[in-house]
């Protein structure tokens, strides 16, 4: 069946009232996509940015409330400098070309991750994007850059300890209070986690927040991930029975 026909058909079967409120995506497989085509790995990342653009549009069309994209992990610094440098050049390019449309589409951009170690130009690109879209009321688009789940949890613990030492924490810490110290404070946990690129692991992404997420893995490399795949994932999500430990 032609892709567009299957896409239209599946889209019709999606219940707009039951789309995931929050989708998180581990965008993996850029390097392998390129290498298998005899191209430099950078080409995979460049193409991956195109996929980000399409995915943001499609998520917005589907009425997704929050889209969180894993773009660079705290572990990715261990890659060769040429690759890290190339990856660090992408946020600026992305916002240069996409910001007008994000503003038009009422999307709110946010950065999650440890800003301190990001190069100034990357921080500035995302912060300018956040600032320019802060009054938007539509989909929240979180970019996870220099993000690591364990480091996020430790940062929360240390911030809590400081607040406690200053006498600003009353009573015991429960899940709600703890969540308020995470980068995703105030946001619902992801309902659906998508990972492309064939690996079946979490790679230190949103360790706390993914506790009850539905998982959807695809062998497709991120540059080949399309609207159809996102629609398939959402459709599959809607067929699941989420029990949360109950009957
Ligand atoms: C995902 O693609 C992008 C980042 C992790 C920054 P990879 O670069 O990990 O691609 P593979 O997994 O090597 O194919
Ligand atoms: C996860 O992909 C991180 C991002 C997509 C940014 P990796 O390619 O870094 O994950 P591993 O190394 O295969 O676990
Ligand atoms: Mg990878």
How would you summarize what this structure contains?
The chain has 247 residues and is an alpha/beta fold. Helices cover 46% and strands 14% of the residues.
Can you tell me about this structure?
By secondary structure, this protein is α/β, with parallel strands linked by helices. It has helices at 3-13, 30-36, 41-62, 81-104, 120-133, 149-165, 175-179, 227-239, and strands at residues 22-26, 66-73, 108-112, 140-147, 192-195, 214-217. Helix content is 46%, strand content 14%. It is globular, with a radius of gyration of 18 Å. A six-stranded parallel sheet has the order 3-4-2-1-5-6, with helices on both faces. It has a single domain (20-149, 192-239), classed as 3-Layer(aba) Sandwich (Undecaprenyl pyrophosphate synthetase). It starts with a helix and ends in an 8-residue tail after the last helix. The chain contains eight helices and six strands; from the N terminus they run H-E-H-H-E-H-E-H-E-H-H-E-E-H. Bound molecules: 3-methylbut-3-enyl trihydrogen diphosphate (2 copies) and magnesium ion.
Question: How are the secondary structure elements laid out?
Answer:
Blueprint: H1 3-13, E1 22-26, H2 30-36, H3 41-62, E2 66-73, H4 81-104, E3 108-112, H5 120-133, E4 140-147, H6 149-165, H7 175-179, E5 192-195, E6 214-217, H8 227-239
Parallel strand pairs: 1-2, 1-5, 2-4, 3-4, 5-6
The structure holds 3-methylbut-3-enyl trihydrogen diphosphate (IPE) (2 copies) and magnesium ion (MG).
Magnesium ion (MG) binds at residues 28, 197.
């Amino acid at each position: 069946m032609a892709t567009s026909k299957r896409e239209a058909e599946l889209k019709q079967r999606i219940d707009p009232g039951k789309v995931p409120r929050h989708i998180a995506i581990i965008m993996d497989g850029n390097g392998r996509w390129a290498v298998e085509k005899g191209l430099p790995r950078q080409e995979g990342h460049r193409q991956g940015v195109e996929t980000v653009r399409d995915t943001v549009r499609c998520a917005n069309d589907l009425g997704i409330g929050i889209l969180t994209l894993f773009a660079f992990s705290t572990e990715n610094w261990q890659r060769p400098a040429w690759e890290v440098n190339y990856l660090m050049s992408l946020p600026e390019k992305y916002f240069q070309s996409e910001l007008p449309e994000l503003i038009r589409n009422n999307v709110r951009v946010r950065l999650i991750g440890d800003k301190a170690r990001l190069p100034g130009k990357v921080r500035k690109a995302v912060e300018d994007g956040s600032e320019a879209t802060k009054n938007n009321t539509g989909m929240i688009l979180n970019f996870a850059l220099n993000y690591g789940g364990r480091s996020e949890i430790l940062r929360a613990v240390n911030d809590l300890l400081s607040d406690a030492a200053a006498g600003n924490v009353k009573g015991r810490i429960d899940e709600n209070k703890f969540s308020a110290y995470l980068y995703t404070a105030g946001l619902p946990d992801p309902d659906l986690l998508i990972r492309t690129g064939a690996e079946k692991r979490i790679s230190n992404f949103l360790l706390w927040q993914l506790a009850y997420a539905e998982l959807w893995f695809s062998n497709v490399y991120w540059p080949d991930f399309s609207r159809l795949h996102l629609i398939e994932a959402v459709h599959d999500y809607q067929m699941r029975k989420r029990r949360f430990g109950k009957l």
